[in-house]
Amino acid sequence: MPEHAAHASFLPPVLIFCAAAVIAVPVFRRMGLSGVLGYLVAGLVIGPSGLSLIGEAETVRGVAEIGVVFLLFIVGLELKLSRLLSMRRDIFGLGAAQLLATATIFGAVAVAAGAPARSGVVIGLALALSATSIALQLLEERGDLQSAYGQRSFAILLFQDLSIAPILALMPLLATAGAVRGEGGVLQTLIGAATAISALAAVVLVGRYGLNPFFRLLAASGAREVMTASALLVVLGTALLMEKVGLSMAMGAFLAGVLLAESNFRHQLEADIEPFRGILLGLFFMSVGMSIDRALIAQHWPALLLATLAAVAAKIAIIAFLLRAFGSPRTDALRGGAVLAMAGEFAFVLLPVAAALGLLTGAMTQFVTALAALTMLVAPLAAKVLDLALARRPRAAPEPEPNSFDGPDGRVLVIGFGRFGQIVDQVLLAKGISVTVIEKNVDRIRAAARFGFRIFYGDGTRLDVLRAAGIERADVVCICVDDREAALKIVEIVHEEFPQVRTCVRAYDRIHAIDLMKREADFQIRETFESALAFGQAALEELGLDPSEAAAVTADVRRRDIARLVMQKSEGIMGGADLLHGTRLEPEPLIAPRARSHGLSPETRDIIGEDEHAGA
Question: Which of 214-218, 257-261, 554-558 has the highest mean pLDDT?
Fold first, then answer.
């Protein structure tokens, strides 16, 4: 019986954590605040400083930190080189300026308050980071993620995510900077550095040449649970290896994610890891809340309150100044500063690491941890107050739960019901085609219901949502979203998971169209191209040209434009530049082979002179 009781003893803590999360998180979400705050407060309530339902925060911290490991892996999976290049000025210019300026100012304040220089570096870096989960939620609630300031805020967060791994690698170097003495110490440091570099090289080589064959072999078995186990093996194995050579588990997971960012299996891996990441990351935040010493807060509450308000205000001012310097309007700069004013999730990773390395004293760690947690509570409130003061938009309604997609049976799946998707839907319905439409904008769904349309709520970039929407039974998926990155991601998911489904995609501009062609979209069209041609033709007719002659000119422009598009796909953006200002394009045999199977419709191929014998 005692043995049975020992085996069952893990259930009470699990039930306590689940009950605390179920109660706290919905309450905070209903208040318009982040679920992270709910986890922090729940941990504070059930921890040693609260009701003492859980005695030691460290008993769960080890397991909970795996949530941070999975989060960094997911971040690495999202960091494709093409995405970084398109945002490189804001990421590496604005993002680097924000991190360096904020860390320098906060570090200098810490040193002026009596902290050693190395401690000041750690404190400055920990407070310079921003909470990605909270910031992105605020932007999504406002509907501003695709706005100019939203994109720049995201670029700053992206640079901060990129900087996590170097910062974690910097911690041991800071700890040993003043401790290495004599030849023995130097030799030990060199051996440690060589071991770490060798481990990194090994991970890169295995990731580059071994992981794809490995996952192909497992996928051929058809056992989905084996793929989940392999995903956990790769992430946790790489994390453990990095820890053994003196680096951090989080850095290993980040590296594994980056190496798999271009893999054919990355969407499957993300889907397998996501449930573990969400649960364990919530547990991690609860363990952080448990570690906050309420006695410390009660003892030093004036200093903590002043430091929290000063840190939030200073961060708003610094980031707003930098956003203004990079061209943002004053209002957008202030809102961007408020969105990023809280400390980041990784402050709770950096501070314990720094304490273990001797860079921070126990009192410093407790104070800065409490300060970081309090900024997470105060900064979203400051953002709400600032929104009201600026009177920019009403408070967002709580996000609804995704639809259950009961009985989806459409031959066509339409993703996005904006001004473009609505017209596409009308054309399909006019022919009596069965259509399933998914959209994640709540206001559009409500407006569509007034006109008799049934639209399902869901995010088309999620594999599980696409499956639930019945994509496996669809013949065609029409991707009508106005987010270029989301469109590219959906095309990749469809081609990797549902190769039998054809893709018709709305392209934002010429560069986006070329990217879609490189991803072998079956059909793509720029959202303003045909309307601009019709507009130009009408202008020619208003100038007195015969309608047939105006139509011929328009057709010629269309042919030259499509020919340029095909050439640019293989030759770069300057391909076909000589066709821009020409008057006529005679059919060329060289154009036709390039057009085949590159996202051009049969009518388009006819326009540029392709037929079944064009390549002969």
Answer: 554-558
Identify the pLDDT of residue 180: 46
- Residue with more model confidence, 447 or 266: 447
Same structural domain, 416 and 386: no
The domain boundary, picked from 338, 359, 390, lies at 390
Residues 433 and 317 in one domain: no
Note whether residue 397 is domain-resident: no
Q: Which of 327, 355, 390 is a domain's end point? A: 390
pTM over 0.70? The answer is: no
pLDDT surpasses 50 at 360: yes
E-assigned strand segments in 396-508: 412-415, 435-439, 456-457, 476-479, 502-507
Half-sphere exposure of 458 (CA within 13 A, CB side): 23
- CB within 8 A of 12, min separation 6: which ones? none
| Separation CA 166–CA 173 (nearest Å) | 11
Per-residue pLDDT band for 99 (boundaries 50, 70, 90) equals: very high
Does residue 318 share a domain with residue 429?
A: no
- pLDDT for residue 23 is more than 60: yes
Per DSSP (E only), the strands in 26-149 are none
Contact between 445 and 421 under an 8 Å Cβ cutoff? The reply is no
Three-state secondary-structure class, residue 329: coil
Residue 12, pLDDT above cutoff 50: yes
94 exposure class (CB count in 10 Å sphere: 0-12, 13-18, 19+): buried
439 part of a folded domain = yes
DSSP string, 49-66: TTT-SSS-THHHHHHHHH
Q: How crowded is residue 197: how many other Cβ atoms within 10 Å of its Cβ?
A: 11
- What burial class does residue 384 get, using C-beta atoms within 10 Å of its C-beta: 0-12 exposed, 13-18 middle, 19+ buried? middle
193-202, 264-273, 482-491, 519-528: segment of lowest average pLDDT: 264-273
- Summarised one tens digit per residue, pLDDT across range 150-192 is 878 878 887 887 787 678 777 777 777 554 444 444 566 567 6
Q: Angle formed by the axes of helices 148-177 and 249-259, to 10°?
A: 130
What are 457's strand-pairing partners?
439
Q: How far apart are CA 491 and CA 502, in angstroms?
A: 10
C-beta separation of 608 from 587 below 8 A: yes
For the chain, what is the mean pLDDT? 75
Residue 504: phi and psi, rounded to 5, are -115, 125
- Which residue has better confidence, 390 or 414? 414
CA distance 232 to 236: 6
Find, among 69, 42, 53, 11, the residue nearest to 285 by Cα: 42
- Sorted by sequence, the CB contacts under 8 Å of residue 164 that are 6+ apart come out as 72, 75, 129, 250, 251, 254, 346
pLDDT of residue 249: 73
In angstroms, how far apart are the furthest CA atoms of the chain? Answer: 98
3-state secondary structure of 433: coil
